[in-house]
Amino acid sequence: MDSSNFAPRVDDIRPFQVMELLRRAREMEAAGRDIIHMEVGEPDFPTPAPIVEAATRFISKGHVHYTPALGLTSLREAIARYYSDRYHIDVNPNRIVITAGASGALLLATAATVRPSGEWLVPDPGYPSNRHLIRAFEGIPIGLPVNAETDFQPTPELIEASWHGQTQGLIVASPSNPTGTVLEPENLKAIHEFTTRKGGNLIVDEIYQGLTYGSRDFTALSCCSHAIIVNSFSKYFGMTGWRLGWLVVPEGTTNAFEKLAQHFFIAPSTVAQYAALAAFTPATQAILEERKQIFSQRRSTLLNGLTSLGIDVPCTPIGAFYAYADVRPLGLDSRAMANHLLEDAGVATTPGLDFGNQDPGRYLRLAYTTDEGRIAEAIERIRGRLF
Amino acid sequence: MDSSNFAPRVDDIRPFQVMELLRRAREMEAAGRDIIHMEVGEPDFPTPAPIVEAATRFISKGHVHYTPALGLTSLREAIARYYSDRYHIDVNPNRIVITAGASGALLLATAATVRPSGEWLVPDPGYPSNRHLIRAFEGIPIGLPVNAETDFQPTPELIEASWHGQTQGLIVASPSNPTGTVLEPENLKAIHEFTTRKGGNLIVDEIYQGLTYGSRDFTALSCCSHAIIVNSFSKYFGMTGWRLGWLVVPEGTTNAFEKLAQHFFIAPSTVAQYAALAAFTPATQAILEERKQIFSQRRSTLLNGLTSLGIDVPCTPIGAFYAYADVRPLGLDSRAMANHLLEDAGVATTPGLDFGNQDPGRYLRLAYTTDEGRIAEAIERIRGRLF
Questions:
Q1: Phi (first) and psi of residue A8, to 5 degrees
Q2: Inter-chain CB proximity A253 and B1 less than 8 Å
Q3: Is residue B359 very low, low, confident or very high in pLDDT (cuts 50, 70, 90)?
């Protein structure tokens, strides 16, 4: 077997660019350098203690067998209750599909819907796996250039103008990675009405749900009954390494996702599912809301620090834990800038290149997934080395 | 969104047929009936205590973050050592890709290799997900009818005769589900030489490796440097619900699998990986070898019992934990027979329908994943009700 044995899709799927930079950062750390990590899309907090305790209790008996492909009924019901308690939305637990992380959820959603040669609109910049999963199932991802003027989110007008005969679907994310911006509910509603009228698919990525700073905690469930909604235990719930997420699928479509899940996964991790049952308890929620406050403070520290450096973040992030900074005025392309910041200031960041093809040299993503003191230090290091 | 929004592949992918029967079995249990479960491809043993302890130790610190997409280096090295210690094969740990179960491994292997409209040979009967994953990536699974005359395994001659211009690859399994038969090493070697000469792909499923009763413990690694090898912590290692498996990929191809793994999964479960580090310790190995002895005894009890009933198992299973019984002489199609055994004897089994399209009404799969006493009782119940 050599490269000629690979399917053509393999050539078109690109690795996460930041991995190269991360490898270099690890090398530097191994050589004794102190690196401030602002490149990683992963909360730095440990798993909340009640979740760890639930997992420990469960595995201590050793009965770690397969669950149904759709996940534990009790967990699907707990998620439905969460939507009801927090968002005042009634959702039938039968519409909830537990998955191996949000990655598994996106994989199922694209496998179920992407037709060969069907075109899908994906906002650029956006999470890179969306376009690669469309390609994996032989669809054609079409970058929908979005910029700071519309909060890096597509507008209903842009989508209507971009939709044509071959267009099959659209993936949006709110809050968005890499920009942290959100889709206005009325815009999402209009987009959903449009894609439904066109008989197209709409996938809404809500994996940063719960991590919004202000009053905008929201779910597409409230307006988008025909959409497939992707969610995750990784970000707000702080369970990255457990690999657990979920889909909410339109009423009446669960069986299709169930059979795909059987063959793709058999079932999601049983350990993670029993752990996640503790994610909705008052004790865990109190911990998560406290962390959200900490993220909010870090965000202020980072945004103020960047402002003090004269680095512009054109759209104030409303959610997630990223700032998408415009580094063009500094005179270096963002990849060169990321290398410079790493080598000279010991600050790891992610260049825009990972998030699309539209003007990727202009922006740098900084994640506030490290503590306030380290963020402040990163700003001072950049000040010292860059200017 | 309605059924017209699904991709055409969804129509062609069938659910596990046994699920319907399992649902009925659960109903009967809820109504107070005692059901003997011989339908499930899952060992009944708890996770070995040293694995549970390793997991508990790891999660107690709460630092359950993402690992690299290829998995923990320490686990990849542990697997390489296992191949060396047990099979006397040197394998570069860089060729090992840790995955979300063997399902995740098969998903990566098919995503990497299956070309649209490429034809793949899959032995029939065989594990149903193989053909559905080929279909998922727009390839065309071609059933390769195998029967008791060749131990339900394809011969090099059959493959040569079936391979033509559009053929792109072949998936074989040894030991096989549903038959428990193995590919003779010399046949596998000849098959590998043939597919390599043709520039085709060969995927070898070894997820039941370690569970062979006799002297035939073997790995395709010893003869098939161009094959993609699929393995699992679920069966021999007894870790089903943890969802962990691995691939061994040909030298020089790891990067392609890595980028697919990044987008499909981000990474496998961190908890499962730290747990699995304890799977290769002498303490765990002693437990697993003891369980293998128990499986071997159960196998004898089941095979002797079926013989006493006059039910023929045409090929003595060498591995896994299944017997594939020929029920045609009993005068009922295997689906009707499975329903009859469930309703009248309270014994759940899996009809051949799940494993292919070739003569599926003839065979019934019985799993010896329940203890010897229950197997003996199942035989007596069948004797009482069936004859």
A1: -55, -30
A2: yes
A3: confident
